[in-house]
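dumping this here so i dont lose it
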C-alpha cells in the first residue's frame, strides 16, 4: 500500500489545553464497525472503510474518533488496518472510548455501562492491542455508568491511565455540565464529546459554555444527525432502512419528526448553494460556528462521502448565514435547543 500524498493542510485548532492541534473535522468510525451488534449501521465492507479513512487523511484530516464498542472491537481493528503502513510522521491522532462492555455470547444485546477500575484497565489494554499503538491520544468515558461506580471513581481511573502514560489525554462523552464540574475537581477534563447538530442543539445551552470557560476541548458527534442532514436522505430511504441499522428504530427517522427534519434540509439547500457546498458540509460548519467547539466528528463509509463534507473544515459561516439557518429552524420546527450562536 502506497504512502499517503497529503493535500494542502487544513486549518487546525488546539484541543483544549492539550498539545494536540486538530483539524476542524475528524473521521468518525462508528459506522465502519458494521452490522451484527445492537447499534450497528448495517453491512459495511472493510476495504471501503479503509479506503474512506485513507482518503480523509489524504485530504488533510488529522484525527480519527472510534470506540471499543463500535462493532464490538471491529472498528478499532479497521482503523489499525488503515494506518498500519503509514510512517510515524503521517499518522493521525487516534481517539477512542471506554465504559461500554458487551457480551460476546449475545452480540445483539445492548452493551452495559461499566466503570469499575478493573474493567477500564482491561478495556484500555484491549484497545491498545486492537489499535496497534503504545499510547492512545485521547481516551474518553463513553457514557455515565449504570453499575453503581461513582463518577469520581471512574474519572480517577482515567486520570491514573493518563499519569501512567497509557493515554495522552482524557475526556468525557455524553456527560452534562454538572457531571464535568465534579470530574474537574479531581483533574482537568481535557475534552467533552457531546451530540450536537442543527437538530439536536441542547449542548449549546450549558455544556458548550462550561467547556469554553474551563478550556475543555469539544469534539461534537453526529453533526449531520446520523445522515439526516446530508442533503441526500429521503423519506423513502428512511422507510427502507434495514433492521440491522439502528436508525430504523430511532424516532428522528420516522413520523412527524422525520417530516420536520426533511423540511429543514430543504430550507438549508439555498444557503448551501450560495456557498457552493453540500447541505451536509453546511450542517457540519454550523456546529463549528459555536463558541467552545473545537472540532466535529464526521462519519463516512466511502471516499465519496468524505468529499461530501470536507468543505466544512475550512468554512466560516457569517452572521447573515447563521441567521438564515436560525429562521430555517424556526420554519421547519425541527429539533430543540438554542438556534443562533451568541455574538
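and the seq i came up w/
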Amino acid at each position: 500500500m502506497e504512502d499517503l500524498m497529503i493535500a494542502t493542510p487544513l486549518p487546525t485548532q488546539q484541543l483544549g489545553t492539550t498539545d494536540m492541534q486538530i483539524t476542524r473535522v475528524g473521521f468518525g468510525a462508528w459506522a465502519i464497525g458494521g452490522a451484527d451488534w445492537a447499534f450497528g449501521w448495517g453491512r459495511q465492507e472493510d476495504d471501503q472503510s479503509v479506503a474512506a479513512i485513507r482518503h480523509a487523511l489524504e485530504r488533510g484530516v488529522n484525527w480519527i474518533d472510534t470506540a471499543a464498542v463500535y462493532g464490538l472491537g471491529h472498528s478499532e481493528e479497521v482503523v489499525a488496518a488503515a494506518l498500519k503502513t503509514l510512517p510515524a510522521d503521517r499518522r493521525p491522532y487516534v481517539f477512542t472510548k471506554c465504559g461500554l462492555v458487551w457480551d460476546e455470547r449475545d452480540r445483539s444485546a445492548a452493551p452495559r455501562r461499566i466503570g469499575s477500575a478493573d474493567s477500564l484497565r482491561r478495556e484500555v489494554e484491549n484497545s491498545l492491542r486492537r489499535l496497534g499503538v503504545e499510547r492512545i491520544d485521547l481516551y474518553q468515558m463513553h457514557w455515565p455508568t449504570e453499575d453503581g461506580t461513582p463518577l469520581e471513581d471512574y474519572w480517577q481511573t482515567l486520570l491514573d491511565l493518563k499519569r501512567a502514560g497509557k493515554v495522552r489525554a482524557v475526556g468525557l462523552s455524553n456527560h452534562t455540565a454538572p457531571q464535568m464540574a465534579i470530574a474537574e475537581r479531581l483533574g482537568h477534563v481535557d475534552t467533552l464529546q457531546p451530540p450536537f447538530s442543527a437538530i439536536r442543539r441542547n449542548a449549546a445551552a450549558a455544556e458548550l459554555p462550561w467547556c469554553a470557560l474551563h478550556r475543555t476541548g469539544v469534539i461534537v458527534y453526529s453533526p449531520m444527525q446520523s445522515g439526516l442532514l446530508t442533503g441526500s436522505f429521503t423519506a423513502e430511504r428512511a422507510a427502507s432502512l434495514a433492521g440491522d441499522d439502528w436508525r430504523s428504530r430511532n424516532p428522528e427517522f420516522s413520523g412527524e419528526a422525520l417530516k420536520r427534519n426533511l423540511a429543514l434540509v430543504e430550507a438549508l439547500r439555498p444557503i448551501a448553494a450560495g456557498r457552493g457546498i453540500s447541505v451536509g458540509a453546511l450542517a457540519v460548519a454550523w456546529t463549528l460556528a459555536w463558541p467552545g467547539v473545537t472540532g466535529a466528528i464526521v462519519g463516512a463509509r466511502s471516499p465519496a462521502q468524505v468529499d461530501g463534507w470536507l468543505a466544512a473544515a475550512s468554512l466560516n459561516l457569517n452572521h447573515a448565514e447563521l441567521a438564515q439557518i436560525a429562521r430555517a429552524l424556526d420554519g421547519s420546527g425541527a429539533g430543540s435547543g438554542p438556534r443562533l450562536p451568541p455574538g
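The chain has one domain: 12-332.
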